[in-house]
Structures
1.
Amino acid sequence: MAATIKDVAKQAGVSTATVSRVINNDKHIAPDTRERVLRIISDLNYTVNNVARSLKINRTHTVGLITPAIAEDFFMQVAQGAETVLRKEGYTPIICNSNEELEEETARIRLLLEQQTDGVIIIPATNRGEHFDMLTSNHIPYVLVDRVVDETKADAVLVDNINGAYEATEYLINRGYRRFGFLGGDIEHQSNARERFVGFKRALEDYKIELEEDLLKYGDFHERSGYELIGSFLNNDRAPEVVFISNYYMYVGAVKYLIRNKDTMKQPVYLASFDDMAFSEVNGLPSLNIAQPIQEIGMEAARLLLSRIRGEELPYPQIRRLKTRLVHHNT
Amino acid sequence: MAATIKDVAKQAGVSTATVSRVINNDKHIAPDTRERVLRIISDLNYTVNNVARSLKINRTHTVGLITPAIAEDFFMQVAQGAETVLRKEGYTPIICNSNEELEEETARIRLLLEQQTDGVIIIPATNRGEHFDMLTSNHIPYVLVDRVVDETKADAVLVDNINGAYEATEYLINRGYRRFGFLGGDIEHQSNARERFVGFKRALEDYKIELEEDLLKYGDFHERSGYELIGSFLNNDRAPEVVFISNYYMYVGAVKYLIRNKDTMKQPVYLASFDDMAFSEVNGLPSLNIAQPIQEIGMEAARLLLSRIRGEELPYPQIRRLKTRLVHHNT
DNA sequence: GAAAAAATTGTAATCGTTTCCACAAAAACA
DNA sequence: TGTTTTTGTGGAAACGATTACAATTTTTTC
């Protein structure tokens, strides 16, 4: 139904080869043929069929992006960053949702393989990575984002979690805080949760500050666990002066708890937390936030992936760590 | 490099036709050949090449989704809803970003045309719609979401804005509020802004409540305008008791203003606003929110589009309006 | 003005599938 | 047993582009 290259060729009285050359800006074409062909193209409203082209040239100029959740701020900002650079380089991202499930992640990889994407950016849902081998064995480059399974294996774009946590903690210490609470993630299985804990602890050690075991709680980086855990700290005589929260969603949960219970709260608690996103400012509570350059993470991941796709020579693996930044709210 | 259907055929000692039949679950195939072929497929780690398949069958099982902004809550919830039903039906969404720009929206449509998507879901960035004709003339079905250019022309999934605004206003009236402020959008050019205003005004009229001209302000549905406009209402003796805000982002702006200036505020103002998203609860201010079934909008759009793709007989155009729901926060 | 070089165009194979058509073998029927 | 029907399989032509190679025309060079 839609016009094909053949229709254009016939109308213009040339071969499809010539039309193809015009489309692809081949230099060796006579100016007047080029012009004639272009006119017919616009007359017929012809657009190139990318699926045919992709089949022939064996590249699709598409890149898969697997995220644990569409519709979550952090992931979509990464996606936005990636989209910006991919688009500029003529690539189309295909955003997929793993729903924080290993099997879905695997299924999406399979899908992207079928779709012949030229590369994949993955924000891993779990700490498993065997299924990435499917990509390797098909020679599809991929880049991990935000967390990593095994640092020696795959390209990754991360944030300097250790340093970010250290700086924030150090800042708090210098401001005179001594009694710390800590709300972390799964330090067993999640690289970023672990690193943030390390940075936090190292700062306390360097400044010889005691860390009480019962002021140390581990959740799962979800809002609910922040909401539930923060409560257990408060309203007793051993409450911390400041709580270090190592993830944004747990921070949101904690904030919600504090807002809901502000009338019964004995004393204010200061919050320090990873990430600086929408909520961090609007909730009205004073806090120290460790801002990740989220969009930049996505952009860097896209850049790295494109280098791989283009076959540029880079040692394996590339681990890029971006710097965090401290932000103050409502103080 | 990757195994093709030919490799499988050769290994299994059958023709590519047979392999294809196995892949596509053709009924007329001998059980033992099927089994043999399946074994080879798994041995060779074969995956079908969808770009070749798409070329042949002239369908890609992909659907474009054009949104004015990736990384904005509302749009991504729509996307999430759409993704859920598309995925279940074997379709892959390609999410594109128009950046709230007409030209980019046009460019994305052109891209999706080249990619041969089977249909497109569009959250329009502007009130222009001529470029949608490119889709029509290529026989690609499309569905508009959230706002509409001309109701008589294209399929659309919307929300019953008039009724939603009316109900909320009526509720406020019944609660005794009489002095209303209104923060709206561009009622000239944006269908949803207009409809919400109509519902609001109609309720006031029905209850014979005066609407003062200088308590009526129009912004642009962005945070900044909410922030700036709310201030002009307050701190004078003619301040409204309640402000009806017809968009979430303006609401967020207003909330930020109120939080920042809470110390200098003479009297509290109650907010009523369209949408009920992340901020609505956490900001701590009491408010009445008009919740749209955002994910459901995306799901319905996907369902409608799939009906069109499948060629089901439905009168043109289909305009589906979903109901809103009132939600109370911090009261 | 002829030979060589450069520029322009066409022919046809190819990418990896699907599917129409033909056909052989097996099953059902008489 | 011979005929018809059913079942399973293969051959080969598409789908719409790109591109190596060849062929032709034009330009340059001496």
2.
Amino acid sequence: MEEQKKKILLVEDDPNFGIILKDYLMMNDYDVVHAKNGMEGFEKFKKDDYDLCILDVMMPYKDGFTLAKEIREKNTDVPIVFLTAKTMKEDVLKGYKVGADDYLNKPFDSEVLLMKIKAIMQRKATETISDSKQFEFKIGRFDLNSKLRFLKFDGGDPVKLSPKENELLRLLALHENDLMPRELALTKIWRDDNYFTSRSMDVYIAKLRKYLKLDEKVEILNIHGEGFRLVVN
Amino acid sequence: MEEQKKKILLVEDDPNFGIILKDYLMMNDYDVVHAKNGMEGFEKFKKDDYDLCILDVMMPYKDGFTLAKEIREKNTDVPIVFLTAKTMKEDVLKGYKVGADDYLNKPFDSEVLLMKIKAIMQRKATETISDSKQFEFKIGRFDLNSKLRFLKFDGGDPVKLSPKENELLRLLALHENDLMPRELALTKIWRDDNYFTSRSMDVYIAKLRKYLKLDEKVEILNIHGEGFRLVVN
DNA sequence: AAGCCCTTTTAACCTTACATTAACAAAAAT
DNA sequence: ATTTTTGTTAATGTAAGGTTAAAAGGGCTT
């Protein structure tokens, strides 16, 4: 069994601090890629798979939140930790809204950071036992590739899916023939559960149904008040 | 619609602060049980299932860490958040070691706490893909799936059941051939026992009888003044 | 900055699903 | 006999979901 080092994307514009942090993490057995601003961070993120992203909030060109949002569009699961300059409540709240897993106030203690990282990785480890490579699905005569965000019918031309369409169909596929609770999709994809996000989700269900009706054996059923069910007859 | 509130165990020895925090959380739609020390906290924990534990670190009799360890022995999954008096690095590290999900330094901002709770619950949401076997019943020639809320006759087309129909039939099935007391259904399903809910229940019994008459071996009998009995001959 | 494309949200309107209540009939208990 | 409980059907009001279209937002190009 080959032990794979965990890969961390560190986006931090202060060069001194960035290097120090990077070295410290590498000394502790992480594989660290350091980007010096939001732009570069996103480029690097697209090129590889990371187990964790550590983002500075204050950065030129593209701040940490904007970057986080972009990262979230491509990947709803990767843990994100923010580094905020001080205890700025605004920042913290904003961070959680874009789906942060945690945040740290600068200056912070490096051991604390390490523990946080460990805790987060551990959390992921328990979750990610089964769904590690769950990006490709066969749904009746369709093939869904949720990494590349397309849907093919009978091996024909792929139709591109928007991020939300993709995530929603992926969640449904993960629960094929079973209940996919409304609340699950709303918390996982929309990160909020209110009247409007709920209506938004219904709109997406309608869109997916449109795509899926090419195969009349495939349908999305509603379970009133509970959620939806993707069935393949 | 019947909404299931998330249940929080709050263990905090400062009575004023505890009450205030409890009220604040309840205002935000959580179901909160407040324990005043570690001992009491553990007692309450054993008696019920919680979605989250919020533990003060400094407490008489039994501190938060000891309590957390005990809780972890019984339940490896429930998220734990610590409240630490100040930025005590020792505490934070120790907290993560016993498997905390997060910590908050007192005094903390209540909105921040709320966001943390939300984030933690979101994380949990994915894991909770519960197993189905306890939701399936065989009733004569019928199959009841009370998770997906349908009833099949001889493996034919499933008939959809409404939430109340479903819950009622499930309760009857749990007591198959035995008395299912009126009061039980009223308190469990209707959460209230009065003339009108009682009449409402009778209406649902009539609906269920209609579904079930496809199999003349299955019937719902009334036990006057007591309740109903689902019998399979 | 203006315009365009893509995605997402919001709004509107309509349909379906559900639970409750009323009304009256039938059984059972007193 | 009459009061209470149960059986059943139908009517009503409300909430949830289906669908389409318009508005809003963001990035990118010119």
3.
Amino acid sequence: MRLGVCKAAAFPHLARPFMPELEKTYTPADVEARWYQRWLDDKCFEADPARVSEKRPAYSIVIPPPNVTGILTLGHVLNNTIQDILARRARMLGKEVLWLPGTDHAGIATQNVVEKTLKKQGVIKHRDDLGREGLVAKIWEWKEKHGGIIIEQLKKLGASCDWSRERFTFDDDYNACVMRVFVDLYKKGLIYRGKRMVNWCPSSLTALSDEEVVMKAQNAIMYHFKVEVVESDGTPVLKQDGKPWELVIATTRPEVIPGDTAIAVNPQDERYTDLIGKHVRRPLPIEKQELLPIIADDHVDFSFGTGVLKVTPAHDKADYEIYLRHEAKYSSWEDEQLKVTKGFTKTADSTNLSNYVPMMEPIDVMHPNGVLNELAGKDLAGMERFAARKRAAELLAEIGSLVKEEPYQNNLGYSERADVPIESRLSEQWFLKYPSVKESQAVVANGEMKFHPDRWAKVYDHWMTGLQDWCISRQVWWGHRVPVWSRWVGTNTKLPSVLAAALEAKAAGGKRQERFECSLSGLPGHTTILSEEGAPDGESWIISLATASDQEKAIIESPEYQEFEQDPDVLDTWFSSWLWPFATMGWPEKTSTLKAFYPTTDLVTGPDIIFFWVARMIMAGFEWMGELPFKNVYFTGIIRDKQGRKMSKSLGNSPDPLELIASYSADALRFGIMRSAPLGQDICFDEKNVELGRNFCTKLWNAARFRQMQGGATETEISAALLSSDDKWILLRLNTAIAEVSTALEEYRFSDATATLYRFFWSEYCDWYVEASKAVLQGADEKRKANTLAVIDFVLGQTLRLFHPFLPFITEELWHGMGFNADMPENQGGKSIMFAPWPKPLDADELAHFGILPEDEKVVNAQIELVTNTRSQLSTMNIPRSKQPELYFEPNPSNSEIVWTQVDFDKIQVMLNAKSFEIYPSNFTPISSTTAVLSSAGTLYIPLEGLIDVEAERARIGKELAKAQSELEKVTAKLADEKFTSKVPQKVLDEHQQRKTDWREKLAKLKEMMAALG
RNA sequence: GCGCGCUUAGCUCAGUGGUAGAGCAUUGCCUUCACACGGCAAGGGUCGCAGGUUCGAACCCUGCAGCGCGCACCA
């Protein structure tokens, strides 16, 4: 049987044309550039939905779109190498592969970058210099010029993306998807506009979602200041001892004291129950020291500080909630019972509604940019918030209010992007109630969609359980514009006729504050969602028009509708990226691409965007495709430096991947980073690993060269009769490697896969098999030599394929350079190794054909032990390599599995650089100048006249003897223990028995050796 | 505060009940006709600590400590 024939698709042909010798050194830069271009030219990465069939299943993966302004980081290298490995292996498994690439417009980040650049270049001083359209035009210009950098960098890495399908989250088609989705959610009532407390970035001047805020530990100062308790008319409230009652309040933000509207205590706090309903005099601003009511709220923790909380509803989320609670309770109480008397009546029952007093409206004392405004008072107005803080403390000190200040550690929310503390700020924004939450939560919980490692499923579930509405509007210019136009109208406002008619038609049966669909253009399929929102006074209200249709939009922007203004906000970047898996495939059309490749197979991303992106994509998938967007999510680790710190620009600890590629090659970088990326762990990056990858490639190259030096073509099939023990051994080891690598990849254990490849190729193939084969290759038996070369060719061919997903470039170069492609079908490796079938282990029939038994491995394993032990001993004894000893071998009679052949003897002789190798004569008695090496294969006697230090040898053997003695005693004692033998499984018992036998034999041998020394 | 992860050789990490492993680093020898980006060998660990279960624990259980991360947060 001939390997190439028995499974044509699965095995390379063994005969190949003579190839010129490979270059002595491998030059990756040329090779990588050349092959990547060739792959592009040959359209190797392009996916064709038409090719998908039952026999050729689809495999798809969408790239996590990097920021269009981005440059390649090690994080990208990790992430995209993994995707490339998955994609390339899928191709080799005969799948139709789509790896869909693209970039993200990255709203705030991109606008920041471009604005900064323009300011640096002196083009503008402020964005208003250009205005909205001007700036957006500049950003587009900039994007066209610099936007593709990261894409080119990904190509350098070898990424096999289908570049013909590259997408951008802000291109026209994509924008249409976003609009459509917005209007759809708006129509469903899931998107609403409202005045809420939001996270405000005073640097970027925009609202942020909760996910864009990171908590940071902060060294702050806690200021304690005192206030006087007074009645509502200002008269002091006295304590029992007759002294004025004062409260001490702690705060880290004295600059917002002018925004305080109440003082809160816990209703259960007995210290203060008598004070509820009284007032305090607010110390700041000095010129306007208003009286603030003391109110009760359960939120106050009376074990914290003095148990007295100042309430600043315009600048603190929790305080704003207190305000809302009290407003709600007070107004209901007011309405129902005591509308007349707005005054406060204290009762003993603290839960009685009459314990609530009205609060002032929130006082916003800050401009959006973090500078204090006039409401903060003349002393603070115009000051930047941190300077104002210091000043406020000084003011408190000046008026004798400040009691103490002490260092205090607290957590503060920072804007993730601008890296400045955020402000909680009351503002009008767009919010989204998440859609398809139930299905999305269930699909992960029930295992239909798998997270790897699965502990992230818990994190996901937790987040999905406590979903807060998503603030989707941003006050920047670069992004998808909110497709809503609105205007205030009154009862007498004259509206465009179509609109008026639509409203009237609806008004007949409907009521206010409703959303309904109509068509302004009258064109079928083009609609606008109309909504009315009442104003507080009922005299005027807002009409809003939302549409995703260009035709409708044109009408709204026509002169007739001129008083309708488009909402100035743009949408959160993630509001576009959550559509990525289907918006990139032609949605909302039912394209052949969607049909073939959606849902995608795998998603590879970092756990840091599990909420930002992964969770939201799942919800979007269900909402608009009615199906999950991907079946598996692989979460990579975070790359850290040797000290365990995150890679960051500010620390300067992030190596440039392109420099690494330049000095070590892309293959080396890929291999290095995969080797150090265990599943579920953060990655400690060390350039050493890349160096190791480079060394590995060199080794691969030289192993290939070695093969070529043995002669070009082999016309021989592998002959079962001529297989040596080493041939069988390496074929078995290859089987194991194929199985291990395949399993590891199926389980996303990339570092395990690389470890196996490394071990197999370096330790097993190069260090043992090639060395062991040299005896044959340098010998005179041409038939045997040819057979060995045939085995080598088979192993190398399989190895290159196993390596291809990890090392795409060098494997392709060698695949062609050695002629493996020569007579493979075009689509199975003839054109590129990337389409060569993924190796399969030899099956039972094939093993039987070659007469290979699983036990055959043990033969060589024993020989390895013998050779290693001998080398070790010669080395320990300082025997020079030039010595070339004569070897006398006594096979271990109890190891009958080993059938020794002359090939084995020749091999061992070569490997030990010996003069001769003979079977030890049974009647031979060891002499004192002979050392002996023990192994399970047998005993090797080495006469070393004059080279043996008898004393040292005696000491050495003595040590080993002691060790053998103690091991034997241990195992004997164990086996004599009734408790052990009666409870242990047979297998373990056998192992111990075997161990006992082995140690006993070894002990006997050692004693013999000791005796021989005299 | 709640949750998750980690702790094994100098470093980075494998090892889910049966004789403690790999790579790197270190040391020694070898410029042997694929490779010094190489070969051969050596040294190096009471598996974070304390209990428990078991004939037997790096591994299972409990507690503790340290490090990291996520969520929630008190002014």
